[in-house]
Q: What sequence folds into this?
């Protein structure tokens, strides 16, 4: 379902007991955007992502998908546009890559529905988009971490999703696979898919993203073009670093 789609979180406050994790967060993702969400461990990035996906119940604030409250939509309705790509996943059985990608069609077929020729075509196109069609008959359990991430993204695309939320997609990848994955994400955004991913790599955000958001102490403290948002000063504040430490270099520094 192509078109201009929007996932919008406004005034999100969330916590457990006396601990306030998010305190008035505003964040949105639109079709064609590639957005990096940065913040230290425990800042609330994963919590915010789960709330935006409708996986956890909102305590305060709103999350809307194309103007509809996410909480009012059932899982199959959300899955038509919105998908989650986890940080890491290892299937308990040696399913083929094709079988894992075809699981993305479950929202369309139902748990006990049979795949149609059209469903299989969706899966094939998704594998082609992620350049993994040659792995279709390989056991998923035998793939490298980078290949498994490509499969999980293909599964989300087979689902029909046009907005992807990804939790630290490069965390377990070597340098080469990190660059390959970033290139694929950039290509997806160019094709009109919106991608929001959490990361601890500001250089990744600066190299491929259209926007960067910084989450600190439960609030978005900066949001905008990466070259404006990700600076030596902002990173020093975000990660509690001494600006005198040569951890970041920019033209003119």
A:
């Amino acid at each position: 379902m192509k078109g201009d789609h929007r996932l919008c979180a406004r005034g999100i406050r969330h916590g457990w007991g006396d601990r306030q994790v998010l305190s008035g967060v505003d964040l949105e993702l639109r079709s064609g955007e590639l957005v990096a969400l940065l913040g230290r461990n425990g800042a609330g990035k994963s919590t915010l992502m789960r709330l935006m996906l409708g996986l956890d119940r909102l305590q305060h604030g709103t999350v809307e998908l194309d103007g509809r409250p996410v909480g009012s939509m059932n899982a199959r309705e959300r899955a038509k546009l919105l998908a989650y790509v986890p940080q890491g996943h290892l299937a308990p059985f040696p399913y083929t890559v094709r079988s894992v990608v075809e699981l993305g069609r479950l929202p369309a077929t139902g748990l006990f529905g049979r795949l149609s020729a059209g469903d299989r075509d969706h899966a094939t196109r998704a594998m082609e988009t992620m350049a993994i069609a040659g792995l279709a008959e390989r056991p998923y359990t035998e793939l490298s971490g980078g290949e498994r991430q490509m499969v999980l993204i293909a599964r989300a695309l087979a689902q029909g999703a046009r907005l992807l939320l990804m939790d630290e997609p490069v965390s377990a990848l070597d340098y080469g696979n990190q660059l390959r994955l970033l290139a694929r994400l950039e290509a997806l955004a160019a094709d009109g898919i919106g991608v929001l991913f959490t990361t601890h790599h500001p250089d990744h955000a600066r190299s491929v993203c259209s926007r960067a958001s910084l989450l600190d102490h439960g609030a978005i403290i900066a949001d905008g073009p990466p070259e404006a948002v990700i600076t030596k000063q902002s990173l020093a504040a975000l990660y509690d670093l001494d600006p005198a430490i040569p951890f970041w270099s920019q033209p003119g520094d």
Summary: The CA atoms of residues 232 and 250 lie 8 Å apart. Strands lie at 6-16, 19-30, 34-38, 60-65, 68-69, 82-85, 163-166, 194-199, 211-216, 219-224. The domain at 1-81+162-253 is CATH 3.40.50.300 (Rossmann fold). The radius of gyration is 19 Å.
